[in-house]
């Protein structure tokens, strides 16, 4: 291939992490409309698009001739659980809990790993380790194909080298996202905090940002205050 591919044209939503931009080159309103128009093809994955999986660390990556799958520890749920453990002083080691979800692309799968140089040009590389999910851009959808450009972090801790950003372009016929967070929550907390967890999920689904410790603290405070208010309401 003689023509260089640049992140600014391949996935402009991701470009500002790689190159200095004089002005924005990506319209998030147009992108949101594009995702909404293709909601049926995107399925559950749509709920997590536009940064909601940011910082989720990778539990496993599988690739074969007809499937590419990622198992992530859902960062938002993890942060909320960690805050509950801290808030209520629970004897649970938060370093050893996970709330998995699986992104799976199947059928006529094509996968390409890339680095990005200082000018934003993509440099194709062999398959490599991936440690953390950063962002994604859905770049194409039709009846036959879905293409997603994923942006990951590779830590390089074992090699004692600086970490680096990796772009993985995946196209396939079908996309599914399987949520396993509820099962893990029950395994970790039992029947405690069921209503609080429901409140967290309602807030997450409403597009509220709930993915840091301070926001989770506010969310718990709100829930407890609502509980008190409901208890004080006079009954008929």
Note down, in words, how this protein is organized.
The structure is a single chain. By secondary structure, the chain is of the alpha+beta class. Helix content is 32%, strand content 28%. It contains eight helices and nine strands. The strands form two sheets. It has a five-stranded antiparallel beta sheet with strand order 5-4-8-7-6, with no helix packed on it. A four-stranded antiparallel beta sheet has the order 1-2-3-9. A hairpin with a 5-residue loop joins strand 4 and strand 5. The radius of gyration is 20 Å and the shape is globular. The mean pLDDT is 93.
| Elements, N to C (H/E) | HHHHEEHEEEEEEEHHH
* Low-confidence spans: none
**Helix share, percent:** 25-40%
- Rg, rounded, reads 20 Å
Give the count of helical stretches: 8
Sequence of strands across the biggest β-sheet: 5-4-8-7-6
Q: Quick one: biggest sheet?
A: 5 strands, antiparallel
Broad shape: globular
Strand fraction: 25-35%
Terminal residue distance: 75 Å
Average pLDDT score: 93
The assigned structural class equals alpha+beta
Could you state the oligomeric state of the chains shown? single chain
Number of strands: 9
Outline of the structure:
This protein has about 240 residues and is α+β, with helices and mostly antiparallel strands. It has helices at about 5-10, 30-35, 40, 45-50, 75-85, 180-190, 195-205, 215-230, and strands at about 55-65, 65-75, 100-105, 110-115, 120-125, 130-140, 145-155, 165-170, 175-180.
């Amino acid at each position: 291939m003689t023509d260089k591919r640049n992140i600014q044209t391949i996935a402009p939503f991701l470009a500002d992490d790689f190159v200095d931009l004089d002005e924005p080159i990506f319209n998030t309103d147009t992108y949101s409309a594009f995702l909404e128009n293709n909601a049926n093809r995107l399925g559950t994955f749509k709920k997590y698009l536009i940064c909601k999986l940011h910082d989720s660390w990778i539990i496993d990556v599988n690739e074969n001739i007809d499937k590419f799958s990622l198992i992530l520890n859902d960062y938002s749920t993890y942060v909320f659980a960690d805050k509950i453990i801290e808030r209520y002083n629970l004897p649970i080691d938060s370093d050893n809990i996970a709330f998995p979800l699986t992104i799976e692309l199947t059928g006529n799968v094509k996968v390409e790993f890339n680095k990005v140089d200082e000018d934003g040009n993509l440099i194709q590389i062999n398959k490599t380790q991936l440690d953390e999910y950063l962002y994604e851009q859905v770049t194409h959808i039709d009846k036959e194909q879905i293409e997603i450009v994923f942006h990951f972090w590779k830590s390089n801790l074992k090699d004692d080298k600086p970490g680096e950003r990796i772009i993985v372009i995946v196209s396939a016929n079908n996309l599914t996202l399987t949520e396993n967070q509820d099962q893990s929550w029950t395994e970790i907390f039992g029947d405690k905090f069921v209503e609080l967890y429901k409140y967290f999920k309602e807030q997450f689904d409403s597009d509220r940002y709930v993915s840091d410790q301070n926001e989770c603290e506010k969310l718990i405070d709100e829930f407890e205050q609502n509980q008190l208010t409901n208890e004080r309401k006079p009954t008929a």
